[in-house]
Structure formats: C-alpha cells, structure tokens
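re: ur question from earlier - yeah i can do the single chain one, its not a big deal. heres the input i used so u can compare w yours
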Amino acid sequence: MRLGQTSVIHFASRFSASVLGFVATVFIGRILGSDGLGIYYLVLSMIAWSGIITKMGVPSAITKRVSEEQTQSEYATAGVSLSTVLFVIVAIFVLVFQESVNSYIGYPAAEFVVLLLFVNLIQSLVNAVLRGQQLVHLSGIFIPIRTGTRSVVQIAALLAGLGIVGLFVGYMIGYALVSVLGLWIAVRSFDRIALPRPSHFQSIIAYAKFSWIGALRSRAFNWVDVSILGFFVSSSLIGIYTAAWNIAVFLILFGGSLSQTLFPEMSSMSANDDRKAVADLFETALAFAGLILIPGLVGGTLLGEQLLQVYGEEFSQGAVVLSILIVATLIQGYQRQFTNTLNALDRPDLSFRINAVFIVGNVILNLSVIPSFGVVGAAVATTTSVAVSLGVAYATLSSLIEFSIPAGEIIKQWVAAAVMGLVVYSGLWFESTYSLFDVNIVVVFVLVGLGAGVYFAMLFGLSGRFRQTIIDNLPPQVRRISI
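and the output i got, formated as tokens:
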C-alpha cells in the first residue's frame, strides 16, 4: 500500500508538472511560433547530451549506493565531487567552441547552455540522493514546483517581450529553486555527515561505468531524433515534432513513477538476496506500466489533430507523427521496467548492453531514414529501435529471475481502451456533425475527460486487481465505506 501511495503521489506530481509544462509550451508555440519552439528545444537537446558527460551515470550510482543504507553521506559527496569535475570540463569545451554551438542552434546561446547545464546537474544530483533515501515522493513533489516556477517565469517573460532569453531565465530559476529545497531536505535526512574515502569513489565509479549508458539511453530516446533533425529539417518542423513528442511523453509519466518508486525497494531486497520479492514487484510494475499508455495510444490516434491544434493551426500536420511516437512510449514504458529491475539486481552491466543496442540502433535508423522521410521517419526509427531493445531486455532478465507476464491485466486494459475509443470516436463524429463547440480546446477537454472516465470505469469493473489496488490505496475512512 505504501508503494502504491508513493507511486500515486509521484505520478500526481509529475502529471501536474507536465500540465504546467504543456501550458507553457502552448504559450511558447503561440507567441514565438514553431520556429522559436524549435530553437528552444535544440538548446534543451544540447543540455541533454552535455548532461550525459557531466553525470556519466553518477546520479544512478548515488541512488543505488545510498539506497543500500550504509555510509550514505560519503557516497553522496563522492558522487557530487565527480560530477563537478566533469561539469567544469564540459563547460570549458562549450565556451571554447561557442561559435559552432551557436551556428548549430541558430541562436547565440552557448553561455546559456553552460548555465542551464549547471542547474540541471545540481537538480539531478539532489534528486538522486532523495531517491536513494527512499524519499521518492518528495523528489516527485519538487517536479511541479520546478516546472510551475519555470513556466510562470517563462510566460511572464514572453508577455514582457524578452523572447527566447526569457525561456532560458525561467528554466534556470525553476531548477535552482528546487535544487536548494532538495539539498536542504537531503542533508537533514543523513544520520551523519562525513567525508568520502577512496573506496566510496571506487564504488560509485564501479556502478557508474555501466549505468551511465542508462542516462545515454534515456537521452537517446528523447533527443536523438531531435538532434539529427536539426541537421536536415527546418526549426519549424522540429517545433512541430517536439510538440507531438511532448504529448507522447506526457503518457509515460506513470510508468516512470512506478520505476522510480520501486527501484529503492527492489535494490534493498536484492541486497538481501530476496529475488522472489524482486520478481513479484517487477510483475506488479508490468501490470500497471501500460495503465495510462494504452488508452493514451487509442485516444491520441483519434484526437491527434485536435490535440496538436492547441499549439496552433500549423502544428496539426504532426498528427501521424504523434500516433507513432505514442507507440514508441508504450513500448518504452514496458522496457523501462526491465532495465530498472536489472539495475536493482546490481547488474548495470546487462542494462548497459540492452541500452547500447537501443542507442546504436536508434542513431543508425534515424540517420538512415530522416534525410528521406523527415519527421515521420524519425518517429518510426525511434519506435523500431525501442521495440528491438525490449526484446533483448526480456531475454536478459528472464535468464536471471523467474517471472510471468501479467497478460490478463494487460488484455483488460486494452478492452477498456477499445470501449473508450468507441465512445470518443462517437463523440468526435457527433461534434463534427452538429458543431456543438466552436473552440477546439473545449472539444479536446470534453472528449479527453469523457474518454478517461469511460476507460477507468470499465477497467474498475473488469479488473479485480486494479479494483483492489484502488481500494487499498484509498484513505482509511473512505476504504471502510467502500468495503
């Protein structure tokens, strides 16, 4: 029950953050157009790639070692020290080659890249410590605070006429705020504060040398296509692609909350050599990984044009891309649970191989198809590569622990989503025939809300496991009434 509540809190926090981020992105798209949005996301893609070098798997190593509940502060300090050195190296490199950086982005943003990279790194390290301390719910709560602050400042800056610079300022303020708050909580949560010994550095490096590719894999999933598109298509098309991508990744939030919540528990069980308990938690993760993604795929396919029109009329041409990207996030939602479990079993070397398969495949496929098929090719390349990596992940984990795929639960989710799709399609036809609403965003909210209600009502009736999970995680007073 505690894990369920923690997952819900973390998901609700990330969901709120995504809503705030969505609103901010709509403002950016409407005020700066797809070209301005494309420039902003090219900068963020540089932050993502540069961040891999500054972190090199250190945040994951910090979470793992701190979760083992021994000499926590020493491991945290060792990890922060290593990442600080890496940041200085990357910052110098960016500033030395700033002309090339500015030419790629199409905007003089090299100095901002360094500043944004710094606040991003600090926030990642603080979150890693909090997750290791099993304070996942707190790290989750910081997400809407960060995104809300960033979004408010960015929108205010846009309205004040600061343009793209205002976007960078809002980003820095949002990340800096939660970094300070998180650091204060993390330090207070340590039993004691002590300087690390060489063994702590060695232990962090031993784990990070394999886990860094997990961060690279995450960046590849989110940014390889955008980065390569920057060489072949206009900023406007990149803006349309990233608008579709923002909607698609919105649906993967719950799966991410599951993996972050379960990792410390799995890690602790693995340290006690309780692999049966790890397998049970993994099966639970699989049962709920598609809870939001499956209806999201159905709804996103039906309402793709309407969803993208919220950003502006020019964005609606990305509807096909949106459907393909949602398929990619659905597959990724399951694949993440496999690699998360491998890391919890202290086998980052195996996750390394799985992630390497995805990264190499994703880069090769994107480079092969983007020149001919543009943004649609980028979406197909990402989907194909993540599907291949899921197959490799299944084969790898099944060789370590015994588990079963909760096919019954997944089928029930698809059945509920199919019923939802019929209702949404009927509503869409009815609205287009009789023109009940003149404003597109009203149509989106009504049909999305209707679809969500139908889906969860159907699933509540079909799935005893889902129904019991909901009841178990209700407040005690409500639970007694429901029983």
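The mean pLDDT is 80. not sure if urs matches, ping me
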